[in-house]
Amino acid sequence: MTRRLSPAAWRALLVLAAMVLLLAWLERASAPVQGEVLHVFDGDSFTMVGAGGEDEVRLFGIDSPERGQGWSRRSRKALLELIGGERVRLAVVETDRYGRHVARVFRERDGLDVNAEQIRAGHSWVYRHYTDNEEWLALEAAARAEGRGLWSLPPADRVPPWEWRRENRRR
């Protein structure tokens, strides 16, 4: 003789199954993302390979000069020198509309905060639309005051990338 479950028992089983799935998803989502850098695209994005395969990464809270913009090659070269072929750890903030991890990036061998270093060295702006990190704003102000990186360019050539993109979309 088979016994049927009551509607309340079915609901309890569904809730239990949903909780198990949610916990598995949360564990995966909160797990640190680590891997080896394969390719640096520009001063604020790269690809890496880790346990989950290949991922594109965008550095959170910074914006580097675009291809064709002054200091673009130097910004890319600086990021390449920091993390090219290195193992990195990501603190993922979100996944963007292109499926990239948007993250704070830390070099595994010494814990270097790569986002902050790009700002400190004058290779990137703080992307104020996404963050108001006071430490990063102070690093940018110091780089600007000391004329490091892109801040050594003439003022007319220091167009923030978000403004440069907006102007070039219109053309």
What does this structure look like?
There is one protein chain. This protein is of the alpha+beta class. The chain is 39% helix and 25% strand. It is built from five helices and seven strands. It has helices spanning 7-30, 72-83, 114-120, 134-146, 161-170, and strands at 33-42, 45-50, 53-59, 62-63, 87-95, 101-107, 125-126. The strands form two sheets. A five-stranded mixed β-barrel has the order 1-2-3-6-5. A hairpin with a 5-residue loop joins strand 5 (87-95) and strand 6 (101-107). It starts with 6 loop residues before the first helix and ends with a helix. The mean pLDDT is 91.
Quick recap:
The protein has 171 residues and is an alpha+beta fold.
The helix tally amounts to 5
The secondary-structure element order is HEEEEHEEHEHH
Secondary structural class: alpha+beta
Dominant shape: elongated
Radius of gyration: 22 Å
Number of strands: 7
Which parts are unreliable, with pLDDT below 50 for 5 consecutive residues or more? none
Q: The biggest beta sheet, please?
A: 5 strands, mixed, barrel
The chain-level mean pLDDT equals 91
Separation of termini? Answer: 76 Å
What is the helix fraction of residues, given as a range?
25-40%
Instruction: Trace the largest sheet across and list its strands.
Output: 1-2-3-6-5
Bin the strand percentage.
25-35%
